[in-house]
Amino acid sequence: MPEAVITVFGGTGFLGSAIVRRLLQQGAHVRVAARRPERWQPSEHPERLTALQADVTDVASVAAALDGCRAVVNAVGLYVERGADTFEAVHVRAAGNVAQLAAQAGIEQLVHVSGIGASVGSASSYVRARADGEQRVRDSFGDASIIRPSVLFGPGDSFLSTIDGISRLSPVFPLFGNGDTRMQPVYVDDVAQAIARILEGSTTATRICELGGPRIYTYREIIECVLDYRRRRRVLMPVPFGIWTVQAKLLAVVPNAPLTEDQVILMRDDNVVGEGVVTLRDLGVTARSIEDMLPVCFRQGAGAGENR
Length: 308
Fold this sequence. Notes:
By secondary structure, this protein is of the alpha/beta class. It is built from ten helices and 13 strands.
């Protein structure tokens, strides 16, 4: 195994696969570590890529995935809890395991992917777990780079493609509240490029990086961007958050529910880059907007799934 191997946990997921592709393009040797490594699509550089089965909740498999590598990216993401796969298990305990084992193995760099708005005081168990996970990582690997992307979009995403799907099937598009929640969606490959820059040492980053796109939109404006691109006319109908919460509670008993209470809570809060943090511009990455990338996003199929 080459000395300069970079292990990417969650390397078959939406963001993880973009990170892997970007690292391969830059000449790195990459190890994809995922629960289902067979999901990795054929690469242009198979001689510099290996894939192995690993579960971040399993210490032995994490240790095996870290063996012989110089850097690690934890891009595992869980957005809906199912059975033993809880936010606490994946975003807190497992994140701590990866960081602790990386430190013990003498890994040079650790990039941990979290999310904008991570806070222990949030009403969302997902957001609280992200914040607790960041602290676990810092406790074990003090020099870790914490990456907080805003809402990710790109080919095969689960954000714009969901908006597109709803607007294709229904003449009425229900809004969360009045659709005034502010977001700063970021193109997935821009985040991958930023992470690659940190790993190659071409930029000096502080410990917290918040990555958002070039424009702040309201949720309503994002929907209007998709409708304009598709040349569709739809009625945008405000729906109070209380109604969304009731719907989420009723759907809680349904397997693979399309809506959860955590998702409703997330849609209440703005998701934009904060002050005094490292941004894409600081990392030398030119952010691309939704308007610029819609033709690329809708050229391929939708459905990103979890980053595991």
